[in-house]
């Protein structure tokens, strides 16, 4: 069961520019358990015919705390800057830690501190390398009547998934690496096929 509720639209002035925001509350049932995920769309006031789109999964450590262990915060910042200039949207999905949640992500970090990479840590905890679900994105594309997008991504799996929903032209999003995330980026490239 998947039901989606849409909030009203509101203004969001930021250091990157002035945006509109709208939330999409996804109700999911897994077995007997019902839970909610509140996703956020941050968009330019007007959307061009082929908008620039970043589908960004939540990363509290990278997005809010500016962790140097990943490239997430840098990608989000770059996406907001580009969208303020070129018009489009960030679809911010509440899927922390590639879908394993914050608690498990911290446990994965602890395993990484002992030498495992991000993929090995997820597998060690009993998860797949990537547990994310993008089904809500189809609803969001349809809600905004998007037929064609310029997708800000380095992830070939995202390209394939979203090509089943809309026409996709890829735009790279390359962030400067540092000594803390160099191995992380290497794993994304070598094990997950990212276009880096």
From TrEMBL:
It comes from Helicobacter apodemus. The active site is at residues 130, 132. Its EC number is 3.5.4.25. GO terms for biological process: riboflavin biosynthetic process. The keyword Hydrolase applies. It comes from the Bacteria. This is GTP cyclohydrolase-2. Pathway: Cofactor biosynthesis; riboflavin biosynthesis; 5-amino-6-(D-ribitylamino)uracil from GTP: step 1/4. Belongs to the GTP cyclohydrolase II family. PANTHER family: 3,4-DIHYDROXY-2-BUTANONE 4-PHOSPHATE SYNTHASE, GTP CYCLOHYDROLASE II-RELATED. Zn(2+) binds at residues 59, 70, 72. Residues 8-163 form the GTP cyclohydrolase II domain. InterPro entries: GTP_cyclohydro_II, RibA, RibA-like_sf. Its cofactor is Zn(2+). Pfam families: GTP_cyclohydro2 (PF00925).
